[in-house]
Amino acid sequence: TQLLEQSPQFLSIQEGENLTVYCNSSSVFSSLQWYRQEPGEGPVLLVTVVTGGEVKKLKRLTFQFGDARKDSSLHITAAQPGDTGLYLCAGVDSSNTGKLIFGQGTTLQVKP
Amino acid sequence: DVKVTQSSRYLVKRTGEKVFLECVQDMDHENMFWYRQDPGLGLRLIYFSYDVKMKEKGDIPEGYSVSREKKERFSLILESASTNQTSMYLCASSSPGTDTDTQYFGPGTRLTVL
Fold it and tell me: Residue B60: its pLDDT value, please?
Protein backbone atom coordinates (compact mmCIF):
# COMPACT_ATOMS: atom_id res chain seq x y z
CA THR A 1 0.00 0.00 0.00
CA GLN A 2 1.38 3.37 -0.97
CA LEU A 3 1.28 6.02 1.76
CA LEU A 4 2.25 9.67 1.89
CA GLU A 5 3.25 11.30 5.16
CA GLN A 6 2.87 15.06 5.14
CA SER A 7 4.34 17.39 7.75
CA PRO A 8 3.75 19.56 9.59
CA GLN A 9 -0.01 19.24 10.02
CA PHE A 10 -0.42 22.82 11.22
CA LEU A 11 1.64 25.92 10.67
CA SER A 12 0.89 29.40 11.97
CA ILE A 13 3.37 32.08 10.95
CA GLN A 14 3.67 35.83 10.54
CA GLU A 15 3.50 37.55 7.19
CA GLY A 16 6.93 37.69 5.56
CA GLU A 17 8.27 34.45 7.07
CA ASN A 18 9.43 31.48 5.02
CA LEU A 19 8.15 27.94 5.44
CA THR A 20 8.59 24.44 4.08
CA VAL A 21 6.07 21.60 3.92
CA TYR A 22 7.29 18.03 3.45
CA CYS A 23 5.72 15.02 1.83
CA ASN A 24 7.46 11.66 2.31
CA SER A 25 6.89 8.08 1.29
CA SER A 26 8.69 4.75 1.16
CA SER A 27 7.12 4.19 -2.28
CA VAL A 28 8.12 5.53 -5.66
CA PHE A 29 5.57 7.66 -7.47
CA SER A 30 5.50 8.35 -11.18
CA SER A 31 4.56 11.92 -10.39
CA LEU A 32 3.45 14.00 -7.46
CA GLN A 33 0.94 16.82 -7.27
CA TRP A 34 0.36 19.67 -4.86
CA TYR A 35 -3.14 21.04 -4.31
CA ARG A 36 -4.38 24.00 -2.32
CA GLN A 37 -7.82 24.12 -0.72
CA GLU A 38 -9.54 27.21 0.59
CA PRO A 39 -12.40 27.05 3.11
CA GLY A 40 -15.67 26.00 1.50
CA GLU A 41 -14.03 24.96 -1.75
CA GLY A 42 -12.52 21.84 -3.27
CA PRO A 43 -8.77 21.40 -3.75
CA VAL A 44 -7.23 23.06 -6.79
CA LEU A 45 -4.06 21.84 -8.46
CA LEU A 46 -0.98 24.04 -8.00
CA VAL A 47 1.67 21.96 -9.72
CA THR A 48 2.70 18.49 -10.89
CA VAL A 49 6.29 17.29 -10.62
CA VAL A 50 7.29 14.35 -12.75
CA THR A 51 11.06 13.95 -12.98
CA GLY A 52 13.30 13.02 -10.05
CA GLY A 53 15.13 16.12 -8.85
CA GLU A 54 12.71 18.44 -10.64
CA VAL A 55 12.18 21.91 -9.24
CA LYS A 56 9.21 24.07 -10.25
CA LYS A 57 8.48 27.62 -9.22
CA LEU A 58 5.14 29.36 -9.02
CA LYS A 59 5.82 32.96 -7.95
CA ARG A 60 6.87 32.63 -4.27
CA LEU A 61 6.21 28.88 -4.15
CA THR A 62 8.98 26.39 -4.96
CA PHE A 63 8.19 22.72 -5.41
CA GLN A 64 10.81 19.99 -5.45
CA PHE A 65 10.57 16.29 -6.30
CA GLY A 66 13.17 14.06 -4.65
CA ASP A 67 15.77 12.35 -6.79
CA ALA A 68 14.30 8.94 -5.96
CA ARG A 69 10.73 10.19 -6.58
CA LYS A 70 9.68 9.22 -3.06
CA ASP A 71 9.40 12.64 -1.49
CA SER A 72 8.58 16.23 -2.27
CA SER A 73 8.66 19.63 -0.62
CA LEU A 74 6.85 22.91 -0.95
CA HIS A 75 8.71 26.04 0.09
CA ILE A 76 6.97 29.41 0.40
CA THR A 77 9.10 32.53 0.52
CA ALA A 78 7.83 35.64 2.30
CA ALA A 79 4.40 34.21 3.06
CA GLN A 80 1.35 36.43 2.60
CA PRO A 81 -2.07 36.21 4.30
CA GLY A 82 -3.44 35.15 0.91
CA ASP A 83 -1.36 31.96 1.17
CA THR A 84 -3.57 30.80 4.05
CA GLY A 85 -5.23 27.49 3.29
CA LEU A 86 -4.88 23.73 3.30
CA TYR A 87 -2.01 22.31 1.23
CA LEU A 88 -2.24 18.71 0.08
CA CYS A 89 0.35 16.55 -1.63
CA ALA A 90 -0.86 13.67 -3.77
CA GLY A 91 1.06 10.87 -5.45
CA VAL A 92 -0.16 9.25 -8.63
CA ASP A 93 -0.99 5.63 -7.82
CA SER A 94 1.24 3.08 -9.52
CA SER A 95 -1.76 1.00 -10.63
CA ASN A 96 -2.32 3.40 -13.53
CA THR A 97 -6.00 3.88 -12.70
CA GLY A 98 -5.84 7.64 -12.27
CA LYS A 99 -6.11 7.28 -8.51
CA LEU A 100 -4.25 9.68 -6.26
CA ILE A 101 -2.78 8.91 -2.84
CA PHE A 102 -3.18 11.99 -0.63
CA GLY A 103 -1.12 13.13 2.31
CA GLN A 104 -2.89 14.26 5.49
CA GLY A 105 -2.61 17.92 4.54
CA THR A 106 -0.95 20.98 6.08
CA THR A 107 -3.13 23.79 7.38
CA LEU A 108 -1.27 27.07 6.94
CA GLN A 109 -2.28 30.28 8.64
CA VAL A 110 -0.38 33.44 7.74
CA LYS A 111 -1.09 36.29 10.14
CA PRO A 112 -0.76 39.90 9.00
CA ASP B 1 -12.93 25.65 -17.57
CA VAL B 2 -13.74 22.30 -16.02
CA LYS B 3 -16.72 22.47 -13.79
CA VAL B 4 -17.66 19.89 -11.17
CA THR B 5 -20.86 20.57 -9.29
CA GLN B 6 -22.30 18.86 -6.25
CA SER B 7 -26.00 18.84 -5.48
CA SER B 8 -25.80 20.35 -1.99
CA ARG B 9 -23.26 22.38 -0.04
CA TYR B 10 -24.78 21.45 3.32
CA LEU B 11 -26.97 18.54 4.29
CA VAL B 12 -28.41 17.45 7.63
CA LYS B 13 -29.87 13.94 7.91
CA ARG B 14 -31.03 11.63 10.65
CA THR B 15 -29.48 8.30 11.58
CA GLY B 16 -30.88 5.51 9.41
CA GLU B 17 -31.93 7.73 6.52
CA LYS B 18 -30.90 6.94 2.97
CA VAL B 19 -28.77 9.77 1.60
CA PHE B 20 -27.97 10.61 -2.01
CA LEU B 21 -25.08 12.88 -2.96
CA GLU B 22 -24.95 13.87 -6.61
CA CYS B 23 -21.96 15.00 -8.64
CA VAL B 24 -21.96 16.29 -12.23
CA GLN B 25 -18.99 17.21 -14.41
CA ASP B 26 -19.14 18.99 -17.74
CA MET B 27 -15.79 18.03 -19.32
CA ASP B 28 -16.58 14.54 -20.61
CA HIS B 29 -14.11 13.00 -18.14
CA GLU B 30 -13.95 9.25 -17.94
CA ASN B 31 -12.83 9.02 -14.31
CA MET B 32 -14.88 10.16 -11.35
CA PHE B 33 -14.11 9.86 -7.64
CA TRP B 34 -15.80 10.23 -4.27
CA TYR B 35 -13.72 11.15 -1.22
CA ARG B 36 -14.45 12.00 2.34
CA GLN B 37 -12.34 14.59 4.10
CA ASP B 38 -11.81 14.63 7.84
CA PRO B 39 -9.37 16.81 9.84
CA GLY B 40 -5.94 15.21 10.13
CA LEU B 41 -6.84 12.37 7.76
CA GLY B 42 -6.58 14.12 4.41
CA LEU B 43 -8.75 12.82 1.57
CA ARG B 44 -9.77 9.19 1.71
CA LEU B 45 -11.12 7.51 -1.41
CA ILE B 46 -14.53 5.90 -1.04
CA TYR B 47 -15.28 4.75 -4.60
CA PHE B 48 -14.19 5.61 -8.09
CA SER B 49 -15.45 4.95 -11.57
CA TYR B 50 -13.51 4.85 -14.82
CA ASP B 51 -16.48 4.41 -17.14
CA VAL B 52 -20.25 4.37 -17.21
CA LYS B 53 -21.67 1.57 -15.04
CA MET B 54 -18.14 0.71 -13.84
CA LYS B 55 -17.15 1.18 -10.22
CA GLU B 56 -14.22 0.24 -8.03
CA LYS B 57 -13.93 0.28 -4.26
CA GLY B 58 -11.55 2.73 -2.75
CA ASP B 59 -9.98 2.62 0.68
CA ILE B 60 -13.13 3.07 2.77
CA PRO B 61 -16.19 1.76 0.86
CA GLU B 62 -18.04 0.27 3.85
CA GLY B 63 -21.46 1.85 4.35
CA TYR B 64 -21.46 3.47 0.90
CA SER B 65 -22.50 2.56 -2.62
CA VAL B 66 -22.29 4.43 -5.92
CA SER B 67 -24.06 4.71 -9.21
CA ARG B 68 -22.84 5.88 -12.60
CA GLU B 69 -25.60 5.60 -15.19
CA LYS B 70 -24.36 8.52 -17.31
CA LYS B 71 -20.81 9.62 -18.02
CA GLU B 72 -21.25 13.05 -16.49
CA ARG B 73 -22.96 11.97 -13.26
CA PHE B 74 -21.63 10.00 -10.30
CA SER B 75 -23.81 9.46 -7.26
CA LEU B 76 -22.78 8.46 -3.76
CA ILE B 77 -25.37 6.65 -1.66
CA LEU B 78 -25.38 6.17 2.08
CA GLU B 79 -27.79 3.27 2.50
CA SER B 80 -28.42 3.91 6.20
CA ALA B 81 -26.68 7.00 7.45
CA SER B 82 -24.79 6.81 10.72
CA THR B 83 -23.24 9.53 12.88
CA ASN B 84 -19.71 8.41 11.96
CA GLN B 85 -20.49 9.36 8.36
CA THR B 86 -20.67 13.01 9.34
CA SER B 87 -17.97 14.52 7.14
CA MET B 88 -17.09 16.64 4.14
CA TYR B 89 -17.67 14.75 0.89
CA LEU B 90 -15.73 15.74 -2.21
CA CYS B 91 -16.31 14.63 -5.77
CA ALA B 92 -13.62 14.83 -8.45
CA SER B 93 -13.17 13.97 -12.10
CA SER B 94 -10.19 13.40 -14.38
CA SER B 95 -9.35 12.22 -17.84
CA PRO B 96 -6.77 9.46 -18.26
CA GLY B 97 -3.74 10.31 -20.32
CA THR B 98 -4.22 14.06 -20.11
CA ASP B 99 -3.12 16.69 -17.59
CA THR B 100 -1.00 14.00 -15.89
CA ASP B 101 -3.93 12.75 -13.78
CA THR B 102 -5.05 16.14 -12.53
CA GLN B 103 -8.26 15.80 -10.59
CA TYR B 104 -10.86 18.55 -10.70
CA PHE B 105 -12.89 18.87 -7.55
CA GLY B 106 -16.36 20.06 -6.72
CA PRO B 107 -16.93 22.45 -3.79
CA GLY B 108 -17.88 19.65 -1.42
CA THR B 109 -20.96 18.66 0.56
CA ARG B 110 -20.78 18.98 4.32
CA LEU B 111 -23.00 16.22 5.66
CA THR B 112 -24.14 16.11 9.26
CA VAL B 113 -25.88 12.96 10.53
CA LEU B 114 -27.81 13.45 13.75
Answer: 95
- Thinking of the domain A5-111, which architecture would CATH place it in? Sandwich (2.60)
C-alpha A51/C-alpha A37 separation (Å) is 25
How many domains in chain B?
1
Residue B96 confidence (pLDDT): 76
Using a pLDDT cut of 90, give the percent of chain A over it.
81
A1, pLDDT greater than 80:
no
pLDDT reported for residue B2 = 66
- Domain of B56 in residue numbering reads as 4-105
Cα separation, B61 vs B24, in Å, equals: 20
Task: Name residue A13's amino acid.
Answer: I
Regarding beta strands B4-6 and B10-13, do their DSSP bridges make them parallel or antiparallel, or are they unpaired? unpaired
Q: Does A33 touch chain B (CB under 8 A)?
A: yes
Residues in chain B with CB shorter than 8 Å from the CB of A51 are none
Question: Taking the domains of chain A in order of start, what are their residue ranges?
Answer: 5-111
B94 touches chain A (CB under 8 A): yes
Q: Give the mean pLDDT of B68-97.
A: 94
Which residue does chain A place closest to B99, by CA atoms?
A48
A42, A45, A97 ranked by CB distance to B102: nearest: A45
Nearest CB partner across the interface for A100, out of B4, B103, B108: B103
CA–CA distance, B69 with B22 (Å, rounded to integer): 12
Answer whether B11 touches A (CB < 8 Å): no
Query: What confidence category does residue B100 fall into, taking pLDDT thresholds of 50, 70 and 90?
Result: low
Distance of alpha carbon B23 from alpha carbon B72, whole angstroms = 8
Distance between A75 CA and the closest CA of chain B, angstroms: 20
In a domain, B22, yes or no: yes
